[in-house]
TrEMBL record:
Residues 90-129 are annotated as: Disordered. This is Formate dehydrogenase. It holds the Pfam family FdsD. InterPro entries: Formate_DH_dsu (IPR021074).
């Protein structure tokens, strides 16, 4: 018996996959926000946005914004607050927080990947240090 015979036209299987992807993205965004809740309030949203802008590929950000545009169910308030600083995938390169030419060249004071900072480390805005 084929998968199509089991799942009909495959729409349920596709829907289940989309739901799984969305649940993972919501969980990841909330994990980032949970980390930044330990930082000073004035840098939290910027920290979440900087991390997502630097490390999430356009497809992930597109799914996040589709979910936000649909109400953002399950996302922590900090993720929603940070969303105005997150670069939409169709946005002009260099827009958003923590992206563009400044990120490629390295941050002030010699920080950033150009100065040997690991890209796997969390991005904490300078004001919190």
């Amino acid at each position: 018996m084929s998968l199509e015979a089991i799942h009909g036209d495959g729409s349920r299987e596709q829907s289940d996959h989309s739901d799984l992807v969305l649940r993972k993205l919501v969980r990841m965004a909330n994990q980032i926000a949970t980390f930044f809740l330990s930082q000073p309030e004035e840098v939290r949203a910027e920290g979440v946005a900087t991390h997502i802008n630097k490390f999430w590929e356009p497809r992930m950000r597109r799914h996040l914004f589709e979910h936000l545009d649909g109400g953002g169910e399950g996302l922590l308030p900090l993720v929603i607050q940070a969303s105005v600083l997150i670069r939409r995938p169709e946005a002009k390169p260099g827009s958003g927080v923590g992206v563009g030419e400044d990120a490629r060249q390295g941050g002030p004071g010699g920080q950033g990947p150009v100065a040997g900072e690991s890209l796997s480390e969390p991005s904490i805005p300078e004001a919190s240090r």
